[in-house]
Amino acid sequence: xxxxxxxxxxxxxxxxxxxAVIGASSNPTKLGGRPVAFLKDYGFKGEIYPVNAGQAxxxxxxxxxxVRDIPGPVDQAVIVVPSQHVEEALRGCAEKGVKVAQVLSxxxxxxxxxxxxxxxxxMEIVRETGxxxxxxxxxGSVSPPDRFCATFSxxxxxxHPPAGNVAVVTQSGAFGSCTxxxxxxxxxxxxxxxxxxxxxxxxxxEVISYLADDPETRVICAAVESCRDxxxxxxxxxxxxxxxxxxxFMKVGASELGAKAAATHTGALxxxxxxxxxxxxxxxxxxxxxxxxxxxxxxVFAVGPAPQGPRAAIVSLSGGIGVMMADSAEGSGLELPPxxxxxxxRVHDILDFAEGSNPLDVTAQVAVxxxxxxxxxDTLLASGEYDAIMLYLANSxxxxxxxxxxxxxxxxxxxxxxxxxIGVITPAHPEVQKALEEAGVLVFEDxxxxxxxxxxxxxxxxxxxxxxxxxxxxxxxxxxxxSQPLTEARAKRLLADAGLPVPAEAxxxxxxxxxxxxxxxxxxxxxxxxxxxIAHKTEVGGIALDLKDAEAVRTAFTRITDSARRLAPDxxxxxxxxxxxxxEGAEIILGLHNDPVFGPMIxxxxxxxxxxxLGDVSFASVPVSREAAERMVAPGDxxxxxxxxxxxxxxxxxxxxxxxICRLSDFAVANADQVDGVEMNPIxxxxxxxxxxxxxxxxxxx
Amino acid sequence: xxxxxxxxxxxxxxxxxxxAVIGASSNPTKLGGRPVAFLKDYGFKGEIYPVNAGQAxxxxxxxxxxVRDIPGPVDQAVIVVPSQHVEEALRGCAEKGVKVAQVLSxxxxxxxxxxxxxxxxxMEIVRETGxxxxxxxxxGSVSPPDRFCATFSxxxxxxHPPAGNVAVVTQSGAFGSCTxxxxxxxxxxxxxxxxxxxxxxxxxxEVISYLADDPETRVICAAVESCRDxxxxxxxxxxxxxxxxxxxFMKVGASELGAKAAATHTGALxxxxxxxxxxxxxxxxxxxxxxxxxxxxxxVFAVGPAPQGPRAAIVSLSGGIGVMMADSAEGSGLELPPxxxxxxxRVHDILDFAEGSNPLDVTAQVAVxxxxxxxxxDTLLASGEYDAIMLYLANSxxxxxxxxxxxxxxxxxxxxxxxxxIGVITPAHPEVQKALEEAGVLVFEDxxxxxxxxxxxxxxxxxxxxxxxxxxxxxxxxxxxxSQPLTEARAKRLLADAGLPVPAEAxxxxxxxxxxxxxxxxxxxxxxxxxxxIAHKTEVGGIALDLKDAEAVRTAFTRITDSARRLAPDxxxxxxxxxxxxxEGAEIILGLHNDPVFGPMIxxxxxxxxxxxLGDVSFASVPVSREAAERMVAPGDxxxxxxxxxxxxxxxxxxxxxxxICRLSDFAVANADQVDGVEMNPIxxxxxxxxxxxxxxxxxxx
Lengths: 702, 702
Description:
Two copies of one chain form a homodimer. Chain A is α/β, with parallel strands linked by helices. Chain A has four domains: 3-301, Succinyl-CoA synthetase domains (Rossmann fold, 3-Layer(aba) Sandwich); 305-468, Succinyl-CoA synthetase domains (Rossmann fold, 3-Layer(aba) Sandwich); 504-580, ATP-grasp fold, A domain (Dna Ligase, domain 1, 2-Layer Sandwich); 586-699, D-amino Acid Aminotransferase, Chain A, domain 1. Chain A is built from 22 helices and 29 strands. In chain A, the strands form six sheets. In chain A, strands 9-8-11-10-12-13-14 form a seven-stranded mixed sheet, sandwiched between helices. In chain A, strands 24, 25, 26, 27, 28 and 29 form a six-stranded antiparallel sheet that branches. In chain A, strands 2-1-5-6-7 form a five-stranded parallel sheet, sandwiched between helices. In chain A, strand 12 (219-224), helix 7 and strand 13 (247-251) form a beta-alpha-beta unit. The longest helix of chain A has 22 residues, at 447-468. Chains A and B meet through helix 5, helix 8, helix 11, helix 16 and helix 20 of A and helix 5, helix 8, helix 11, helix 16 and helix 20 of B. Chains A, B: One of its GO terms (molecular function) is metal ion binding. Chains A, B: In the N-terminal section; belongs to the acetate CoA ligase alpha subunit family. Chains A, B: Residues 492-528 form the ATP-grasp domain.
């Protein structure tokens, strides 16, 4: 992130006063001809300067032999010459004082070793001169409000993207044009489009950061195949969140197969996809899994007010559709709270035959008392119990005439509640759709798609608030001395020093020492044989549990050591370990993982072999605030259910686990340069307190 | 299911020669007027007989005072009189010899107790006279090939559903009309539409059974809110599978919230949704989760050939889109096998710069060598390695002119491989879409939606084959004597008699008996204190593990009983239990669950508390064939991972678990009338063999 340069250089990608096309062709269908043709065709009002060594005129415009020959200032250059000439062209641009050059030429790092070297030479020019570049292997940019179109993508041939408030920034040009066409076909307008290609210099994050300030942009759609600058992405997302602009993010390669294909395609190894997911959420953004999901969500924000939260009411002409929508809400982030008793009584007063609460089934009978519908809508929204209302209006929208009364009802409520989201589900006639959307009402044909889109949009309110909350309330941990071998005992001691709940354990050489240690620890205690040669303690009778007094400890010492000597005659017996009884609790894994792009991350999940096999873990970026730790262990689906009360068993001590997460985060901060990983598996979380039963610290290899 | 009557009565729902409308009105916008108006408007060629006691003519047709007055035969009657007059009307229909009456009137079981009684009286007439009814509270039927439209749904006003090969059978009329409108807007034609309402008599299953034989129908879309006749549904699904017709099934109320809403709406308690899921899959059908998913899948079968399997090849003009499609394939049922080495070499010979294997990224560069594309398509399909091919053609489809060469390539390959599925992804111009679909090529705008639809369609091939496989290779189990109390020991004995792997355990009163028992069991053995008064055996030193010979057994007997007497002085000590060492293995839950609608089901999943909390279990209907048992434990996501090899640990003995499932199935068959449930939790599945460590049998309450 080069914040001081951002404004001018990135602005020049979209809104230059003048643009040079280096490698311009007289043939408007050729690669070098298209940017000139598009710029003319779109009606770009700034200066267009073709640059072509061999021609004095290109497509009716004066052409220059060299970018340095151009008389006026040049904000942007589009470079479409063969890869071996790009370096020279870029040097010319730098000398001319061009702010940003879009290198559309391919044959760089994406191609081969020679290309990688060529790309590195471009970056040397960037570093030397301060010029900025997109690409190489970029697809250029389009800015409908500026009637600017600098690309050779045929997707822009004939189809002018309408100006609007949705921005699309992608690494891949094909991904971008697929996205923008789906957005345009959905009836949405676009503010800025750019495809950043190899991202040698300008990366997606920097563009997002610019768009956060861009008055033309309300919603940001982004798609990447890889990310190199984790902190840059974090900062850009937070900036957009602070500006109140939703970022809808796609990163491909989430699946095992997709990751393999992405590695083939980009040459980059996929990091842990869950870490990426976490960083997106922490930034207050939404990770979309398909282009359609991205477009649906962009639609919600582009057309209506941003939802203030995830609470929605369903009003349905059909009970079955209402139930299906409730099914679709599961896991979507949408909440469908039942009406309060008071609200329910008022709704029932208005329409006595309405069934259920949320979904509210007004039944097909409502046809005879249609005029009650706007009263119900108003009552639901005025209650303050909902952030959004979804209206299933059957097939009424197919005919503008038949829909006329509904249109009246919906617009009436729209005017009364400008800050609430209103979504209508009906197969809408284009006129109906236009009238609703112009008033800021969402229109969907498929009920489940509205539910999922609103679930995502409603979740974003909370995610943004969390992203902008207290950045960190981290404490400090002592720096660990890693000069000694990191045995389990040593690892536990270091974690105990950092405040983690490691139970006191004592190594005792004789029965009296064991009894004294047990007195100190408090009863009941457990006892394990202490021997460097015995791996499976149970098999030699080497474990005694639940010892209730000193006498039992002394007896057990003799029994255990005798048994071990008899059953493992060759083993060295050093005595026993005395420890408090672990007791009953949930076995949780708590660890520190060092991501190559995003740095240290805390992870927590179901402990034991299940955890590893099912991969059910949550991540959070270090430093982890107390609030973030609480969100990690909050009730929900997945592993955190292990902490819930269950069949009369009390709930586990979430606060103790939250505390442990915070202390591990402090440990990670204090030892960022020397620790690569920590794994406590399990940490036993009891109904009161927690205990680290096993621990491993992996030092950073020098 | 009344198979002998199915043909004529259900046929009369869609293709009657004559129809009476009882309660016909002269006003074509009223409930009673609409069916007459629609029938006339749609051009129904059969006889239309309005029945209205007060009028001699209705909408230009001769009207009758009573259905019995009609001169000719009447195949179908549509009843739209108020609920209190339906009984009388139905009796008239029965006397007239009407085959089926569609009772559209509401005010029956869906309303209140009096309505329930009214519905029961209708069923008495059905049982007495043999007349069949749909509804009450039905929405009628539409059959475009017959130009027949007997409904009062305004959805059919003005919009005539085009004739085609997709049938829609739903309980809820609103659900049905939402579905059929989405199907029609997708450009598909419809064969039959019916909404069965309360299903007092004719239920969804019976209609599916009819549609399986219906030559007009190729794809069956069904949606229910409840199901009462589990075996009827099973038989209908199997019949459709045998006819090679895909059934796409929705049942709402899958989520917790949805189930609650459904209970409010239908008054029926939701059964276990996973059981429903299982029955649908076992019937070779697909459970859709949204109407859009249902429509997408219907589209695949309505437009192109049915996929022969789930193996698909992706050819993409964009690497990023290919990777995203691979992501979307995860969990969709679609398989994306890499090209064989030989195939890969051939593809590379054709296009040397193509990257990857599957997805195959032909890159935007292919534009200069477009004519290689059909060669690649042909090579991929001719290899026999794929059942389907998906072509991401960027935005080329927006212009018929630009798409012309692609259209040629695709149609060429379509002609060469008529049995393969070909899907094109592009935002298609209507002309482009029409040309492709008419040739049997699928067209999608969103890449992920094609992937998911083909995943479902491709899975159906395997599901159908499984559904039609060997019905059962069940063995026999002895009938259990349940006259004695069903203690754990007794339950284990009964299950052992049925062939389940219950380890031999011996109750021994003295050390010598214990040693003899251990000799018989084989070493090593475990020993547990035997006392009705001691619940926590560990706490009294009451357990000894891994005893390797008779001497160790004798010593342990003394140690254990001494320890227990000392630490639990008031407990009655009966001796010890000697058992083989359980060893290391996966703890699995294996059980029998009796579903109120679908009968006995075997369940298997992760054992212990995780299983219950995470609900990660698989079901299968009893009797379970060996093949079905193998599918239950087959490698995949979820709990069966516990059976996989993992980090050098050997795989668990799946065959032993399969055997146990089959034996439990036999036990369930032999004891169907007297056993309500069985739970073995856990059955320990080792690298060789399995052992039931705990067992519970719940007898059927009389």
